[in-house]
Prior knowledge:
alpha/beta, 16% strand, Thr_synth_N, amino-acid biosynthesis, threonine biosynthesis, 464 residues, six-stranded mixed beta sheet, binds the ligand N[C@@H](CCOP(=O)(O)O)C(=O)O, threonine synthase activity, five-stranded parallel beta sheet
Amino acid sequence: MNYVSTRGGAAPTTFRDALLRGMAPDGGLYMPARWPTLSAGDLRAAAARPYVDLAADILGLFAGESLPPAAVRAAADRLTGTFHHAAITPLVQLEPNLWVLELFHGPTAAFKDLAMQMMAVMTDAALEGTGQRLLLLTATSGDTGAAAVRAFAGAESVDLAVLHPLDRVSPVQRRQMTTVDAPNVLNLAVRGDFDDCQRLVKAILADETLREGRRVSSVNSINWGRLAGQVPYYVAAASALGAPHVTPRFVVPTGNFGDAFAGWVARAMGVPLTLIAAVNRNDALARALNHGRYERTAANPTASVSMDVQAPSNFERLLFEATGRDADATRGFFETFARDGAVDLAPDLLAALRADAAAVSIDEDRTRAEIAHAWKAYGRVICPHTAVALAAARDMAREGGPVVALSTAHPAKFPESVAPVLGFEPPVPPALAAITGGKERLTVIDADLDQALDAVKALAGASP
Ligand SMILES: N[C@@H](CCOP(=O)(O)O)C(=O)O
């Protein structure tokens, strides 16, 4: 299985190399050269299989021969030891046509653990025997950073730099990242928003001087390894609902569009499903799909902090596909976007994008109302991100056919948003029980490439 860049200027490469690069050297994102397929029989069987078996098979399809099969199997098996639910991703029915897919039973109580735990094992395998050190970078609006710190803190051959927007992640998310005392982890709190952090990560990845003597990659969903690890739960859930004979709608709370794009991938592999991205009032994606103009604005703080994203990285993958894999058009689009901050979508391109995904924006009042409704109607305490998805999903369930809202994080990560609505604090799950005290370690920087590079070079022991 080969991987190609969305911008067409990088040589095709392997899964292993894509994993260890994070982004293609031409600034594009890696995509499989062709989509592996699941047969109708695979889909019928998936629901009855243990999640880790399904995950191992799907990861194996993407890894090809570039990683030993035993490493891929060990990556999937890691979920058994680290998740607090036997089903790993339980699907829970709320109403006749409405389900939530619980993705928060991992060690940091967010869906990011599903792929991140597997990436840690695959990364070890990819580095084995190379004698190389790997510098990993991640931009986070809260959940990815926590999952990355948990997965890579103390890793022998890895350094990890996590950039989060200062004061714009929840206190629990921040402490999950900053109270871990590991010499290979650096937390940078950036005066800016998530998009500034992601821009800095992409710029650091492009810095050739850092690459002397080490590999440099990212554990954001720009890395294909992250997306591959998020495909299995779509397959498992669709199969449980009757695929291939049923076409469920998945409503995905969306920030960087990685989770939603993993759903797109499942469909490309043969899973019948419809994709709806639910965003908060940071609605660049919804404006693009609904009004035809992709425009970056500063991110607004919301209760669903992890979705405070206005330049979702994986829109590039969706656009690449919607252009019929036209790398020149994709490169041109994102160069214009980087320069002007806005691009109008041509009618045929917009139609192709709309055939792939829909998007709805849920405001803060509806988010709070949905948290209240979920408690009153179902006795469930949900996080603000889940509330954004569930608000949209409930509307759709009335139209008929199965609708699944992805429940991406545990509410105890966001007590400051949930408690004022419900009048009580969300119960704390085992994964979060230990995160109350502890000294915090973080360095505050401006949204400035030189400051970020200096800090990252100090972590990696590179010459300034
Ligand atoms: N929602 C994210 C933002 C980064 O997303 P990713 O899936 O690209 O890592 C977060 O919580 O950090």
